[in-house]
Structures are given as C-alpha cells and as structure tokens.
Amino acid sequence: MAGAADAGVCGVCFNHCKYESKGSGFSMVAWEEFKNAGVVPCNERAHFNNVTGEKVTFVSNQRAYTVKCYKGRIKSTMYGRGWRKFYEDNNLGKGQMVVFHLDEPSPTASILWFQVGNGSEDEQPMEEGDPIEDSDSGNEDGEASSDDGEGIVRTRGLLLNETEDAQLQGLLPLSDGFIGFAFVHRLTRTDIRLGMMKIPKKVAAAMPFEEQGVVGISVDGRRFKKISYKTTDDGRIVFDSKKWKNFAASRGLKVNTAVLIGFKSSERDDVHVLVILKKLV
Prior knowledge:
At1g16640 B3 domain, alpha+beta, 2 domains, B3_DNA-bd, transcription, DNA binding, 15 strands, TF-B3 domain-containing protein
C-alpha cells in the first residue's frame, strides 16, 4: 500500500503544498496514514480554518459525511467518525487524490482514482531508520506499517504475552472520545532511563499536534501532568526528557511494561492533546 513516507511530500501535511492557494477548493492525497484524520495541505490551512466551523458536512458519491475540524497554527485536520466512514466507504489510503470544495453552499469532495504503485503490500517498504524493536536497543521508536484493522499502531517487532494480549483485547475498541491511532508499545531503557519517549510519525500524523506545544498526559485518565513536546525532522513527537522521566517515575512506569497509548482532543488552550496510557498488566 502506498504511504506518504515514500512520496517526497511535506513532513507536516504529508502533501505537496508548495503552490499558491487559489482559495476556492483544495486537493489532498489520501495516504494510509490518513485513516483516522486527513491533514489539510499547509498552503490551504488558513483558508480551511476560515471557511469551516467545528464540523463540516460534504457530499461525495451521493453520500453525506459530517466530519470534525481541528484548526491549528501549524496543522489542520478533518477527523472523527464521519471522516473514518468517508475513508472506508471510498477505499482510500492508496494515494488517491481527493478534491474538496468546502466553501460552496453545498460542500463536496471528489475522488480521482490515481494511486502510487499497484496498491500491494509488497510495495510498502520499511522506512529507513525504522528499526526492529528490541528492549535492549537504543533505537526502539519504529512503527508498524499497518494497523491490522484494529485502529492501532504497534512498535515494530512487538510481541505481547498472553496476559498482555488479553488486557489489550479487553480495552479495544477504544471509545469514540479517542482520536487517531492508538499506540501499543513496550517501554524500553531509552524511554525510562534516558527519558527519550517518542510517538511514531504514523500516529503523530493523525493527531492535532503542532510543531511544538504541550500535552496533558496521564495513566488511566487520572492526574494529568503537562509535558512539553516538539516534532523532530522525521515527523515523530518527542516529549520533554526531564518531565517525562519524572512522570514515568511518579506513575510507576518501568522498563518492559507494555502500554496502550490513546489520544483525545483537549478543550484547553494551553494543552493541544490529551495522552492516556493504560498498562497491559
């Protein structure tokens, strides 16, 4: 399956955005990373933010879809149940071009059936720099190439024991309050002892993360702590090392603990995203 990582596109919007906005409609290349949220091209973000509200309804192939709108300074997205339905109904994720006209009296979305490659799994190579997971390795921030239909991303090479897998299945599917992909990960020495906790690019792309900002993070949705983050050149989200280490120590997070990490939108101006960890023990 075609992925944005192989297409030489912008690292923020996963699209080609180096052209002048015409202000009437915009095109989006629908990658597999957009299953849970479609990212508006950077050059069209200001127009999108102006013409949409908290939600927008558009018609595509004689069906109406109501999607939620996140409007940020660095990234804007369409997400929610309506977006996922639009993505699934039209079999998106193979590099098709979708043209949106959202500022018209009757907003529309048209799909051009262009795709990169032939859509086969064999054409989706592992990204350079995405290593095999090893709890003793310093390079453990790789990500899965697909979500296996579960709506989650697993650290590449992750293996769960019987108890952990039973815990995970008991938590899925996550409620509608969660957005984007959930992330299943086994905490490593690098995460806990060095404080280098990263969120994979595939997960970050489906979230309303800015280039840098603040998340509210908790275990099981209790006692949220604010932690600053930044986006690396390769699109991953990295938490502030000192604050993450303090958080992990105070919540009893240890090396080799398997966790399910989910994300929710924040209603606070000083917090971009809520991050909720659930231990698989």
